[in-house]
Amino acid sequence: MDFLSPELLPALENYALAHSQEELPVLKELDRQTHLRANKPRMLSGHLQGNFLQLISRLMQPKRILEIGTYTGYSAICLAQGLTENGILHTIDNNAEQESITKEFIKKADLEEKIKLHLGNAADIIPTILTENEEWDLVFIDADKPNYALYYDLVFDKVRKGGIIIADNVLWSGKVLTPPNEIKKNDKSTKAILDFNQKNKKDNRTFSMLLPLRDGLMMAIKE
């Protein structure tokens, strides 16, 4: 049964925002500055998804969070709200263009001691962060789509039992509904997202669910 008419979705999203926790002032300012100063501002998580990430983090109270794909730091600041007193969030990005705005707002959020920014290739950096006995409580993947499966595999063994992996953009602006024979040969991102979603569906090591929030979030709890 369909409860929501498609034409009502924009208004309902506004209603959801109006009846959700207020956006933190530092995040509201970061949203504005991202639109003024950064390329592709639609990559920003935004208020509704940011609140959801913050809610998950607050429920988990993680000690160690890994974020793959920083952009301007909006989602990192959201996720860091649930960290334990001595917790830390490691965030990785290969684009130095956003480094200044990211560091500026991490400082404004008073999270310099809790968020560590790594610049470079995530596949090279991920294996170097944790010690042998450390594990991730929460991982958020929001980077280059062709490498989603690689990042998932790189972190999986270091995610604790009961830990959560979240991947963004798994609906890929609706392109996941494109018939396979109509996907362009050079469209590596759409193919990668389709493969990644199937990989999660078939992974019996987790309990997973794809949420149609914003551009789609895949959530997997390690069992």
UniProtKB/TrEMBL annotation:
Gene Ontology biological process terms, A to Z: methylation
Superkingdom of the source species: Bacteria
Any matching Pfam family: Methyltransf_3
Keyword Aminoacyl-tRNA synthetase annotated: no
InterPro entries, per database record: Cation-dep_OMT, SAM-dependent_MTases_sf, SAM_O-MeTrfase
Keyword field: Methyltransferase, S-adenosyl-L-methionine, Transferase
Molecular function GO terms recorded: O-methyltransferase activity; S-adenosylmethionine-dependent methyltransferase activity
Membrane-crossing segments per the record: none
Statement: the UniProt record of this protein carries the keyword Transferase: yes
Protein name: Putative O-methyltransferase
